[in-house]
Description:
The chain has 16 helices and no strands. It is mainly alpha-helical. Helix 5 (103-134) crosses helix 12, helix 9 runs antiparallel to helix 12 (232-248) and helix 10 (206-214) packs across helix 11 (219-227). 74% of the residues lie in helices and 0% in strands. The longest helix has 32 residues, at 3-34. It has helices at 3-34, 42-70, 74-78, 92-101, 103-134, 140-152, 155-168, 176-183, 190-202, 206-214, 219-227, 232-248, 251-257, 264-269, 271-280, 294-325.
Amino acid sequence: MEPTAKLSKVKFQQAKLQKAMLFAIYNRIKRIAFGRQGNDGLVFKLFVYALLISVGFVYLYPILYLVSQSFKSLNDLLDPTVLWIPQKLYFENFVQAWHVLNYMDTFWNSVLNSVVPAIGQTVSCAVVGYGLAKFRFPGKSIIFGLMMISFIVPSQVVMIPLYLMFNDYHMLGSPLPFIIPTIFGQGIKGVLFILIYMQFFRTIPTSLEEAAQMDGAGFIRTFFTVILPISTPAIVVVMLFSTVWHWNETYLTSLYLGDSMTTLPLMLKTFNDSFSKLYGGGAAVGGKHQNINESIRMAGTLLIVLPLLVLYLFAQKRFVEVVDKTGITGE
């Protein structure tokens, strides 16, 4: 073979090898960037993380701003160079907000008007949801339809009739208008909690109930000894949602309780007036009268939402678990 032909063949093989190497590098970069299925590559992950960070920032920004402002002194508030981190943590804001809110007494009033009804809803809605999910009986579709109608009807429509009914039964001025309805599977968002239980109980295999019944357990014993212990995620979520909605309810609370009791969210509505009565009129702090500022209001707000934040931190794992097992995923 002539030297020229050999040289051409070598160059051709080198060019082919380079092309193969470039193609392999391209495939590797493509696999890293887009993954094998297009949804597990670096580009997709960066997009997901960017989306999560953006959404997380939207939700976390108010909390971070609330915490930052509540620890600022008046000098930090007036200093334009102090944006997020105060020069010194100023705890006097929380001390004043604590006294203005009359925190411990008002806190227990809030617990009585939120946690106790939440316990009632958690138990009663579980019983109703189990009956609708597992049993067939005459009129079931009618009951379910009426229940859905009560969920669709705005609360403002039935507010006055309920007020008159509670007034006739002498329940106003006490937590009874919130507690009594929850015992019967009603109350704030009671229908929604029944639907959550229904969807969760439908995911439980009937073989567990059949096995319990073969061992001699009745329906009531099966419900309390077999079904409820494995329904912890749904119970936690219903308890969490019910507590939060009862805690944050202000209009019905002010309507039913009147001047006999007050809760922390209600105190926030009159926080400025309460502060002026306590520190602005004849009272003095540190030898001088105090005027309310944004940091004190933020400290009071943080004290009000802090119990809910702590509650959610403990219930977060179960909350995420029940989202996967209820109607959100279509199961």
